[in-house]
Design goal:
Radius of gyration: 17 Å
Strand order of the largest sheet: 3-2-1-4-5
Distance between the termini: 39 Å
Structural class: alpha/beta
Number of strands: 5
Number of helices: 7
Shape: globular
Order of helices and strands: EHEHEHHEHEHH
CATH superfamily: HUPs
Largest sheet: 5 strands, parallel
Length: 223
Amino acid sequence: MTKEKAVVLLSGGMDSALVAKLAKDSGYQLAALHLNYGQRTEKREQKAFDDICNYFVIQEKLIVDVSYLEQIGGSSLTDKSIEVTTAKLDVDEIPSSYVPFRNGNILAIAASWAEVIGAKHLYIGAMQLDSSGYPDCRREFFDAYEKAINFGTKPDTHINIATPIIDFSKKDIVDVGTSLGVPFQLTWSCYSNEFIPCGICDSCALRQRGFDLAGVIDPLFNI
């Protein structure tokens, strides 16, 4: 019997790696989507994507070039004239790394691909708590977007957006991922560097705090 398909939005980071594991453990046949959009760590993120796909034996993959996000700009991830913000985890402000409406763009592509390959689920590793305050990581955004997808696709297409870690903290990511054997050593989080993590960007700081609070050594530095 053919398994039902789920498209996993797989950036190569910790959150999406855990979500891929959760989707796989739910019995779905995974199809992995990755976007290159001119981000500073594009090559390293794609390597992480490839490594995670190999680990989970994901054979159906789609890598999409959406370099128009770089052309649009407005983010330190895509515009090198904008400095990557040093982490201020207890300050309620959106950092310079926010890519305007990135998740909206990703989900549109994911929905198109899901309709073509017959997938009924889109899995995304969005988090409301430890998400740097990005507005496109809120549950209400995904609820609204799911309605838009189903209004804008064929009558027999029914796609849901699964956000299984939406209320997780990074500590929860580490705790649950470690217990499930998620290969965190294959993931990449840094916004600035492709070889040695900078340790000071929002993503690095959130990752480190998660491992510290969980009392676990980050395997990325233990290989």
